[in-house]
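ok so heres the complex, two chains, lmk if somethin looks off
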Amino acid sequence: MRIRVRLFASYAEAVGRDEIAIELPAGARLADALQAVRASVGTTRLPPMPLLALNLRYAKPDSPLSDGDEVALIPPVAGG
Amino acid sequence: MPRYLTDAPLDPAQLVAQVASPGCGGTVLFLGAVRRAAEDGDVEGIDYSAYHEMAEAELERIVGEAGQRWTGARIALRHRLGWVPVGEASVAIAVACPHRADAYAASRFLIDETKRRAPIWKRERLASGAERWVEPVHA
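and the predicted structre for the whole thing:
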């Protein structure tokens, strides 16, 4: 299945892009998406366990993924 | 449709007008502004960016939670994105409730949760031209 991964702020800067498309086998979970991203951009560019979002909500690493999902790696937020 | 994020300067009077209601005896307006602090160096302003779609959704959830917790609360919240110079407001929250205690409590909840949860980031620019991402401070 195809997953769209979005990167923001310091993470986008560290990786040099703000979006990555990844291909995962059926049954994959959010943590697998993170692992695939780390493998494709180089593991040193991102922290080991960044905050994750799935389809516009914060989500746990064991959340199951579906084809077409949007995953995001969320740097420490600093609004206000 | 964007409801909470804006690229334009914030208009507190408009937010207060938006929550006004004959049944509300207490209205609290919170404004958060970009500030200059000695420990941070000579900050000229902050460039705000967001995960737009999620920030709108998360702010909607936060406002919904406040509405459930403080029944009858009328809430207007705006967060500015893009360049905000020192002294200008980056966030404005108006809450009107039947009684002031609820308006104060809901206002505090809304700004605290916004800072804790909304996927929004700050890039600070100093007078020297240097730029840096601002790490969150939970206070």
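quick notes: The mean pLDDT of chain B is 94. thats all i got rn
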